[in-house]
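Exercise: predict the structure of this protein bound to 2-acetamido-2-deoxy-beta-D-glucopyranose.
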Amino acid sequence: MSKFCSLLGTLCIVSAVVASPGEDHFEREFGVYTSCTKSNQIALTFDDGPWINLRGISDAFTNADAKATFFWNGNNFDCIYDQDRVSDIQYTYSAGHQIGSHTWSHANLTILSKDQIVDGLYRMEEAFAKILGVLPNIMRPPYGSTNGTVESISFSRGQNVVLWDQNTGDADDATVEFSKGVYDTVANDHLSNALILEHETHNTTANDLVPYAINLFQSRGYQLVTFAECVGAQPYRATGRPQERDSSWTCNGTPAPGRGCGGNIPCKSGLVPPPRH
Ligand SMILES: *[C@@H]1O[C@H](CO)[C@@H](O)[C@H](O)[C@H]1NC(C)=O
Ligand SMILES: *[C@@H]1O[C@H](CO)[C@@H](O)[C@H](O)[C@H]1NC(C)=O
Ligand SMILES: *[C@@H]1O[C@H](CO)[C@@H](O)[C@H](O)[C@H]1NC(C)=O
Ligand SMILES: [Zn+2]
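Solution:
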């Protein structure tokens, strides 16, 4: 694996060979992103779902002819296989918003073993293949907590590591006024672009911040786009058909929120096969 980091430090490109069962080895470039690259584009990103606010956020963007990006957990605020969450996920994906992984259980990856990190990514790939028939090519480490081990595991599984350059602080108990001020500063300073962190699990984010941000940025002439669009990348590693629900669509016997695999929860590994067309 070879590694090159730009002088600006915003993007490290790493060449990694990704092997998928049934496919030839293919070489792609993966990196750690902390910002968008296109001008006049803003990517609003929502972590920690799927949760009850998802459909409303999806609709707010869709109705404004805008796109959002979601980084989901498997077992955090809710179980990703809950029937309501499954239908909200399929609804949001169908609306053209971008989907990424936030790991299975929202554990701090830099205190996990390699096997536990792999497990946290594997279980999300499996869930996305089952529910949507896609393999995302982006992951966001919980808390933005990452290091070289986390990154090389992510790259080897075909996933870029995506952080942010603007933080609304909504998960850190910032007030709504503070978070709006983050948006105001981006617009008033005429920043060329922004990659902004929000959380769909906060009601005030869904109810107050989303309409405020959409209105503000569009009125100032920004386009609200997916992460993939604002960096000029493909949104998915593979796309195909969702699967039928079966007894494997469960969070029972999987790592609990904040925890890694191990003990009586076996660590899963390997590469999830690309979904069939
Ligand atoms: C995650 O673990 C690192 C140690 O690798 C620690 O410095 C950091 O504070 C932890 N983050 C959280 C949110 O617990
Ligand atoms: C990342 O953090 C883990 C846990 O602290 C540590 O074992 C590993 O060596 C770190 N990797 C790098 C490349 O620093
Ligand atoms: C968020 O909203 C839901 C329903 O609208 C409500 O049930 C829940 O208690 C609210 N959460 C908080 C933390 O206020
Ligand atoms: Zn998170």
